[in-house]
Write a structure and sequence with these properties.
238 residues; alpha+beta; Gyrase A, domain 2; 2 domains; 4 strands
């Protein structure tokens, strides 16, 4: 799996700050923008510390609409179709996915879970199934069956590539779900890599810090059963 940040809103935190201040200030948005992106004189700029102080308050209050003014575009490579099916359920995002109608699947284009890799008998069964599936897929195409119909025999393990654009409000919400230790391992790794992509860019490190599992935000586990890091709500009420 590979996740690469392709593009993002210029002046991310400044855009959210201006949106937030516009809601609670009589100043014009253009004038607020000049306070964070001055045309001259860096000393006149509102500091990142003040910007994040406001963002902290906005996020804590639940006024998350201002986060929609920040968006990110990621290249996601080599995930399984099982993972992509989970990913595209997050509807407030844009996805452009590699098409099995036009791209021929190659022999090594399958994801193998670690639980199967570590078990010789399971790995043997898995490999046999994948080989048979790929063989049938190729034989169908050799018989003249259109690729879009031959693909019906391909498993969820088939790798795919996808470009995802998501605003920060949705990313904030999705990470609360998908970074949970009880989330499925592949999509959890995907959003961990998304967070790391933001963490590796100095100007985005602060935003990456907001991307946490829901228990870290709430202070308790909202699931019926906790992984042990935080007690559930029911356990806290006892």
């Amino acid at each position: 799996m590979k996740v690469i940040l392709l593009n993002h809103t210029p002046h991310c935190i400044e855009s959210a700050f201006v949106a937030a201040r516009t809601c609670y200030s009589g100043d014009f948005p253009e004038d607020i923008w000049k306070q964070v992106i001055p045309t001259s004189g860096e000393n006149d700029r509102i500091s990142d510390e003040k910007i994040y102080t406001l963002l902290d308050k906005i996020i804590a209050s639940g006024h998350h609409s201002v986060l929609e003014h920040i968006s990110f575009t990621f290249a996601i490579e080599g995930i399984s179709r099982a993972c992509s099916h989970q990913l595209v359920r997050h509807r407030i995002a844009s996805f452009s996915q590699q098409s099995q109608r036009y791209v021929t699947l190659e022999p090594d284009s399958f994801v193998i879970p670690d639980t199967i890799k570590s078990d010789n008998q399971a790995k043997k069964l898995y490999d046999t199934f994948l080989n048979n599936s790929l063989k049938t897929y190729r034989e169908l195409m050799e018989l003249g069956i259109p690729k879009e119909d031959a693909r019906f025999v391909l498993p969820n393990a088939a790798k795919t590539n996808i470009v995802m654009t998501m605003n920060f409000r949705e990313l904030y919400n999705v990470c609360q779900i998908r970074l949970c230790t009880r989330a499925q391992w592949e999509i959890r790794e995907l959003f961990w890599r998304v967070k790391m992509e933001l963490s590796n860019i100095h100007s985005l490190k602060g935003l990456a810090g907001y991307l946490q599992p829901k228990c870290e935000v709430l202070g308790y586990c909202p699931e019926h059963r906790s992984c042990g890091k935080f007690p559930t709500r029911e356990e806290m009420s006892k």
